Amino acid sequence: MAVLHPGPSPQGRGRHGRNRLPPRKRPRLVTIITDHLARLVPASRGQGRLVAGSTATGAEISIPYIAARGAADGPTLWVTATVHGDEVNGTLAALDFVRHLDLAAMRGACVVIPAANPLAFDARAKTAPQDGLDIDQQFPGAAGGLTTQRVADRLWREIERAGDCLVSLHTLTAHFEAKPYGVYKLHPDGPVAEDVLLRHLSFYDPSVACLMPTVKAAGELPGNISGAIDYQFQALGKTAFMVELGAGSRIEWPYVEQGSAGLRRTAAEIGMFEDRPAPGGTLRKVLKRRHVTADTGGLFRAACTPGDILQPGSPLGVITDIFGDIVDTVTFAEPVLVIAARRDPVVATGDRIGFVATAWESRTLQSV
Ligand SMILES: [Zn+2]
């Protein structure tokens, strides 16, 4: 009896398209950025795009990059901004940093991804409208996955092959007021010492440096921490951390400058420049932190500023009802350190109104 074989379907067509091809026949993705860096004349800069697909109208879904090559060989620093698409201070800080580098004095290379989540960035939103996935919970991504997972995969293929240090720039949301602060994780298999991460974070003059638990912790937003780009980079045994540069959806120039100045010090710290920076003295290291949510809807009026330490009974703020009568005064039984306070007054029950540290310690960083 004859057995009918349908024969191979053209690549990218057929019922399951490329996903049905055996791995060896998959198109081999070149590392575009590494190749681009190798082609650059020493002490020069280039730019390009990583294509991750297309939209319904045929527009490319592409991740823009800037690649800068120093005058001599050395380490490679990656800076990713706006993995959350509306956290624009990071984009501006990264651009200001890379465009003002003295390449003639630089060793190694710097790669800046100014809009790491392009669909979300264009949509002026944290996540891409196509699937609503938080891309910073999707790394290393999935080549045959949902749109956001494919974007993560495309970016990750480049990063994992060439990079010694990664800085992931974020902000809080536009609802909040916050001074810049650092966030870091400690990968259980990662050899990078905590002191190395704290030293880097001190370069950004942060209000606090938060050790983010990598197992599920009360008070953190729900989500998959291990899918964060900095955590995945740490899993490769390399230095990675996050810097939160204020609020989202608007420019805050002092924080943009704080971010670009910090990046320059990080570059020097890993050996790209001669002037190894001094760490920023004493750092407040946060051991526990939590979001504070409204118990009742109404209008929240903050009574504190980020960086304040609130003693028991001292209010984070009050909530009035829509007629203006105070219906709740938000206080704490223990001292808290305010990381961020809400500035958008309109709240429903469960909305975030503050972000506070409940346990912290001072760490004095030694000059090396
Ligand atoms: Zn973010």
Automatic annotation (TrEMBL):
GO terms for molecular function: hydrolase activity, acting on carbon-nitrogen (but not peptide) bonds, in linear amides; hydrolase activity, acting on ester bonds; metal ion binding. It comes from the Bacteria. Its cofactor is Zn(2+). Pfam families: AstE_AspA_cat. Residues 13-26 have a biased composition (Basic residues). Keywords: Hydrolase, Metal-binding, Zinc. SUPFAM superfamilies: Zn-dependent exopeptidases (SSF53187). Residues 1-26 are annotated as: Disordered. Residues 73-267 form the Succinylglutamate desuccinylase/Aspartoacylase catalytic domain. InterPro entries: AstE_AspA_cat, N-alpha-Ac-DABA-like, N-alpha-Ac-DABA_deacetylase. This is Succinylglutamate desuccinylase/Aspartoacylase catalytic domain-containing protein. It comes from Tistrella mobilis. The lineage of its organism: Bacteria, Pseudomonadati, Pseudomonadota, Alphaproteobacteria, Geminicoccales.
